[in-house]
Structure formats: C-alpha cells, structure tokens
# Entry
Amino acid sequence: MSEYNPVLPLEAVERSFAKKGPKQYTLWIDLEHCIGCNACTVACKAENNTPVGVNYTTVLEIEEGDFRDAKKTPNVGVTFVPMPCMHCGRPACQAACPVGAITKREEDGIVLINKDKCIGCRYCAWACPYGAPQFNAEAKVMEKCTLCVHRVEKGLLPACVTTCVGKVRFFGELNELTAVMKQKRSRSVSITVAGANTNPSVQYTK
# Structure
C-alpha cells in the first residue's frame, strides 16, 4: 500500500486490513479541514458509474453565525459536512426492507443492497435518517455507498479517501481509527438524528 496520510500511520491502516472479522470498517472525517471541494463526490460517481441524480456521497454546507452590524467584525463561517452512508450498527434501512435485500456483513460491518433482490420500493430511503439510499431510475433499484467494497476486498482504500485533496478522510477498522484519532483530536462527534437508534459508524472530528 502506498503512502496514505500523515495523520493516520500506515501501520494503523495495515492493521485494519489484517484484522479478521467480525469488525467494523468505517470512515473518519475531519470537518475542521474539509474545504468542500466535492472531489469525494466526483470520485465516487466515477468509481461507481452512477447516473445523474444518484450520489452515494454528498457534502452539506452549514452556515454559522451572523453579520448584522457593518461596524463590527463579521461572525460568520461555513462547515462542510461530507455525508456518505453511515454503515450503521443497527441499520434502519435493513429493518425496513420488505424483501431482505439489505444485509450488514458480519466480517466487516459493511451494509450492502442486493440489486438482484431489490424491488425499488424505496422503503429503505424513507427509513434512513441520513438519506443514504438512492433510487436509480434507470435500473429501478436502490443503491448507496458500499465503502467501495470491491476495492476494500483487494486491500485498496475507497475512492473518496484516495481522492480527498485535503486529506481529511480516513478509512479503517473503527477501533483502530478511534485509538489513533483520539491522540490527534480531543473532540469527536457522530451525526445522530433525534428518535433514530441506528448507531452510525462514521465518525467526525471538529
């Protein structure tokens, strides 16, 4: 594996791939340094060849502060929040699927949609509090981020991680990432939605 990221030691990534299941692969995203360039979104579309309107990962722009007095220094800012599938510990999409097309792999915690079983009912999209499942109108099935499982199974990193120009996306086994990132950042957050008990695996630092 080539040089990865100065924040995350290469040894931690290698340990993540070497660890046998059950485990939880995930992304850890540094919001402090994300510049909102959407390179991750473009890389994901190119890697997965998704049609127009289907994006496995998006970047939200959250504006903060206000500027009401021209005589004072503006107190405004924007935070960019990348939103991939959270690969939840308790996936709401899986519970909502009436045909059992959604599974959470025990060996690595990746949540996948079986397109051969999917009937395109969109129940998973309505159940997911993060808007991860996308309806592919051409194929008439639901799709979403797979953490580039086809790459991960070959020992490669997800396309969004390798393309991130700010080096703010980290991939690996959740416990390995948590141990390393706690040394780098004193504060970590996960995005939760009121009333949703999904236990999202994707973590953020800010």
